[in-house]
Amino acid sequence: MIKTNIFIRGGETLDLRILIVDDEESITTLIDYNLNQEGYQTAVAHDGETALKLAEKENFNLILLDLMLPNMSGIEVCQRLRDLGHKVPIIMLTAKSEEDDKITGLDVGADDYITKPFSPKELNARIRAVLRRSGQHEDQKSLIMFNDIEINVETYEVFKNGRPVEFTKKEFELLLYLAKRINKPVKREVLLQDVWDFDFIGDTRIVDVHISHLREKLEDEPKRPKLIKTVRGIGYKLEGSA
User: pTM value?
Assistant: First the structure.
């Protein structure tokens, strides 16, 4: 089943589709959730035969393929896809650290590999790198604009009504993260993990403090925010339109 999740990036939609193939449901659920958070469309298969059928029927921009699958290994799936002429980028997922397994995967046509356990941040970085190499990745627009705010991604500059606004590096990263997910609520613990690269351990006050700083610099009335809204019981979302 294809899960559709169109990601709005400064008025632009990201329409990249990824097939996740792993026989462990807990792993596919976690990967599926994180990729949806990043704005990718996803499909899930728990065995090689289903993966082959989906790859034949649907157009994917990338496949995450577990090495150890029931009945048909990830190596065989990769080999079959390449023999059929499919050029879709493939990242092998493996719990093994032996060099021979990784080399075998690359030899049969995989584009990269990642060893379990891996962090969502590492997986996302690998995906972006492979998509860039394959020419499929839609790089971020240099300018992200919404309401009276303009973010220059390349120069790390922010303008409000055409006037520059100074931010610390972490404040800029937080604003950019929310801007990529405009109108979408983001949990505090997700912000803590993705922006600060901390595992959630119960204290998200650092997020609240930085949100307060963003409001002071961007809101006309920081005590009555219209741009960076608190979503009760969840976290925050940036509201705006291109």
Answer: 0.55
